[in-house]
Amino acid sequence: MKNSIIFKIAEYDFEFEKINELNYETFVEEIPQHKQNKSKILKDKFHDENTYFIALKNNELIGMIAIRDKRPFSLDQKIQNLDSYLPCSKAMCEIRLLSVKKDYRKGMVLKGLLKIVMEYIEEKEYDMALISGILNQQKLYKHIGFVPFGPIVGNDKSKFQPMYITKESYNLNDLLKSKQEFSFLPGPVEISEKVKRVFNKKPISHRSEEFKNMFSNLKKKLCNFVNARYVEIFMGSGTLANDIICAQISLLEGSGLILSNGEFGDRLINHAKRSNLNFEEHRVQWGDSFDLKKIENILNENENIGWIYMVHCETSTGILNDIKSISEICKSKKAFLCVDAISSVGNIEVDLSEVYLASCVSGKGLESYCGLSMVFYNNQLIDSKNKIPRYLDLNVYKSKEGIPYTISSNLVDALYTSLINLDKEEKFKSIKKMNNYSRIELKKIGMKPLVDEYLGNPAVITIPISAEYKSRDIGDFLKNKGYLISYESSYLLEKNWIQLSFMGNISHEKLKLLIELLKKFTE
Which CATH number is 5-179 given? Predict the structure, then answer.
């Protein structure tokens, strides 16, 4: 996510170099506590004992803070008999060297730094932390739970209030209730600030003219996005969209063929069985491509097959199935092609102009909130003659301009805003870059993706884990560090696989940090 701020513990040489530069800028040039020098670098005298927490924005260091747990503290030198002012403590540390660049002092940087520090204090089980709190930030410090003590320290240009915080005094609800997390899941995905703001607006009626105009514009945007003629939108998940496709298929004459090379192909088979459709199954091993000649032979051997249903991106393995070639086979046999395009739309270029029906959702590549699903189509619909349940009948939606039932204006507005701001070319380029980087770095630590790069959707990498590790342990480790990956689905746990997905509004910088954590786990 461009322009996002990352809060983390400093660990790389370039980060420590930036820390020394910001240290000089703050405590020499702005607050004259140390003498000037030509290098404009100030290395703290306790540098090797400090644990630094930093705020990065596009690789620029915009804020820092440090923790040190060895006495004497800096406050020991400023306040005589320091312990006489403090409650009893078994494990104490000092928070120091707080610095935020001027352009960011009115934002959330200070709060973000204090939040990650408090998480660290919790983890290390310190029962008290000291700080010299800036006088103009006393309200924030006190809200978090810092308690002022002793005389004000500093000089005429910069004055500080000594403060302490204990487990009993700090406000977990304010800082610790929502640990910073980054989503490398196929859903829910990372969402931009613009979309978040729109989603939080006051809802409007789905019967209002304002909503109808927005909804109509959204439908046009969606169709243009994938080169389809029509789309209907529903309140529900991709499962609903695939049930609607099955309901529409039930109106077709003849039997069908469902292709599966993974978990979601298997689910299409289950959808079809529950809908009492007449069809054949063609399964290949998970992660393998379909043999186009075999599919053609199946259609030649059974001329009654009038439709094929398949997954475009098989999310379970990351393989991208060739809907263009299978569409050509369908055209030659006068069969309809139906596609689950849920994990491909918004992640790669998708052309649905030759597809009969295709399912999609709001909460993956389209970078919005989960909750809306949709079905694209290009032909005139078959009259259902009221044989299909109302909520599953595309004819009902089309007859009511797409709004027969209640639909959330917040979800619609959020998806519309995301589409307006989504630069397809830039996003697809970014996804490919992250995919290439991941594969190179994963190879270095002995992790080989299940599917080769040229066969896969670049937005999904499935990684089989060697027997010496458990996928659950890796996933839990990353989750504890604030990085969410796919590993908790039953089929992933069973096969000892993990997945990295690049479907949302995420940055290459966050990916680098994730890969570094994976390396640490395997060291």
Answer: 3.40.630.30
